[in-house]
């Protein structure tokens, strides 16, 4: 007991100053608890939890260990309360009519697509009904000219609410659209008719017009194959990228190049910083009397903020901008610029602003990558410094390549589990691809892109966009070739929540501490990987409309596909069973018996001794069998079942999602 107490005291002393890094972990864990609840908690809890945590903090103030636990409790209470309040203050999801409807609204955003465009309408009205507090997004017909941002427009369209999850635990589109403030998405059946022109004084609309002008000039100077990437890098609109080209970037592990975020804002700020330092040093008087480095840091932050606004100010770039603000503050105060404390503060700020972000791939992958980079370089800094001390020209080049590879290994390795969790895929060739793409983007593509922005109003931007396109063409060529390599994309089965939580906890433990005790995080990561590998896929899946039924039989899955079955659901199902083949069912009779499972295409009353009855139609029922039919799917959403000799375990999408504000049709039986 004494030895354990002494070890704990030494560990606390070794980690002094790092315990504050647990505050965002506690806040994020509490937010995850909120989203995992089966029903919405009472709103008074959002006020009661922080008050209770404050009382606990006051009561434990004289006891250091208890006080620290109270701080963690307070961070968690604030995170839980913020998530609950955020959900409660979002506008409710309106019912979406089926069939052709009239839609009108003000153009809030125009997004370029490969062969058309889509618009986001604010203050929309459907069939001359009340003005909605949510947005509507419409895809235009090919060839239809996009309207001016801010204009009041009208069109006839087909609208769709969010699709239900393809399987229990699958992607919840409804939750994403709920927090994105979307009411519906759809397709315009007629050209948009302008009812009122855009007012000239709206800065948001002027910003949208600037994005459109940038995209137009880029596509005049470059073909779509390279111009689409340039538009994405300079406006943030990545929907314009052709599907095959996007897939090449994904297979190469370069999807982060297309997702404007930390890499891009860092490059922009670096370019502005270098130019500012160079400009200030041109005058001997300014170099001697002005604080050049702080001035350059402030100008770089302003440049990064302008770039963030231009590209849409979405979550990944806001996270990077928050980190950049802390770096700039560190430069101004003469403190260390990049640290885990800065990352922790940025995480708490973003979680308080948008608590739902913790569920997104961008938050999970970006914060894990940055934390791994900071902690990893801190760990190898002494070794790295010795190698740098006596380097030659050749050694400098080799060290540069080694640092790029190490950076890619840290960032890619830390974010890979979250990519597997979110997208059920792994890209094994990310290191060689990044060794070429990242330097080329930083040293050639983005500098020419910024030069093009500077020349935009002079109508000379093409002079810079042309060489920008040459660099992009190299990356596009490389991604097309890497996509042909063996196993360029490894599909993995959906990862259980417990597995990714263990991996995340292990990664946090590795990154937050500096003593040897941090290595215990590797054990947590290993436990998470084992849990993921041991997860057993369902034996039966039924889609929410019962038009798709999958029954696992050995190493293959027998698939029943009815007319008008969802291709999106089928694509999601392919990852559920890992490498198992999906083969069309060869059942030619009205019923088929597959082990303990009976498939019936028509109503039956005799289950033939089967323990599970699966059917695309409503079944009257038969004794001794669990029934998964069209009626059950309509009531409970997608269905998943595991069949074992002892029992049948059933999970429904309704039970998985719970009674939450973003889950539709809760009042229906």
What would your notes on this structure say?
By secondary structure, the chain is of the alpha+beta class. Helix 17 packs antiparallel against helix 18 (462-482) and helix 19 runs antiparallel to helix 20 (520-534). The longest helix is centred in the middle third of the chain and has 31 residues, at 393-423. The radius of gyration is 28 Å and the shape is globular. The model has no long low-confidence stretch (mean pLDDT 85).
Radius of gyration: 28 Å
Q: What's the total helix number?
A: 23
Oligomer: single chain
What share of the residues lie within helices?
40-55%
The major pleated sheet works out as: 6 strands, mixed
Kindly estimate the percentage of residues that lie in beta strands according to DSSP.
5-15%
Strand runs, count: 18
Q: What is the topology, as strand order, of the major beta sheet?
A: 12-11-10-9-17-18
* Overall mean pLDDT: 85
Pairing-aware structural class of the strands and helices? alpha+beta
- pLDDT under 50 segments (min length 5)? none
Rough outline = globular
Give the termini distance in whole angstroms: 58 Å
